[in-house]
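User: Earlier you gave me the apo prediction for this protein. Now I'd like the version with adenosine-5'-diphosphate bound, so I can compare the two side by side. Same sequence as before, with the ligand SMILES added.
Assistant: Got it. Here's the input I'm using:
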Amino acid sequence: MNMHLRHSTSHIPAYAPAGNECVLFETAWTRQLPLLLKGPTGCGKTRFVSHMAAKLGLPLTTVSCHDDLAAADLTGRYLLKGGDTVWVDGPLTRAVREGGICYLDEVVEARKDVAVVLHPLTDDRRILPLERTGEQLEAPGSFMLVVSYNPGYQSLLKTLKPSTRQRFVAIEFDFLPKAREIEVVAEESGLDAARVEPLVELARRLRALKGHDLEEGVSTRLLVYCASLIDAGLDPREAVRSAMIEPLTDEPDVRTALLELMQAVIR
Ligand SMILES: Nc1ncnc2c1ncn2[C@@H]1O[C@H](COP(=O)(O)OP(=O)(O)O)[C@@H](O)[C@H]1O
Ligand SMILES: [Mg+2]
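And here is the structure of the complex with adenosine-5'-diphosphate:
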């Protein structure tokens, strides 16, 4: 593969690709295009970004967006330090200055003014205007903006505006096919593949209930937790209950139905 490795390849977080996303990421980076990752929680988006950042030898700045996060939290602000006011860069500004990857996780959660600072960075100007300091930072060629969001989650109110969405190359993520997911969960937890198989089977059945009884299906992350508990010696049914059922629902009826499904699949 044609890679521009700038540092050693050690300590690259493991990532099992579902398709062509690694090539797509690298090509987007080479061509200085921003990237949007869509997909359910716990399916590997964050892992993918850390894997790619390490592979490309780029520093990674990750920001978990929340409903209080404003543009100034990303760009920076003047702070009082011993009687002086000093400008302190926010994480986005730092990533632009150092030419790294800035990953805004769950970007739809952030306040509206965040879109305003992202716009000039996501078109061919690639600039970050810092209104407060009067600076206009030009992003170096190696800088890349990556954002993620979970389109199915919550309501239609929490979605990206088309004018923002259409500035990104987008990759849709979903859970891995069964055999790959078994490999990933076995690798991450240390539990044998043969013992992981029924857990993944159950997860797939629970995912099929999404939209009916459940808002969200079991993530790969929860599968890894569950397999880790079993690998550490916990009784499998107890592990499934704590890592795959209790986190999904607070409704007693739904929980009972899920536990029945578990009895059928996990011995
Ligand atoms: N394709 C994958 N390759 C390796 N590990 C994965 C993969 N998908 C999910 N995982 C495992 O699931 C966990 C949660 O994934 P994460 O990237 O945090 O999900 P997301 O960011 O989509 O919510 C990871 O820490 C890792 O253990
Ligand atoms: Mg994540």
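For your comparison, keep in mind: Confidence is low (pLDDT under 50) at residues 1-5.
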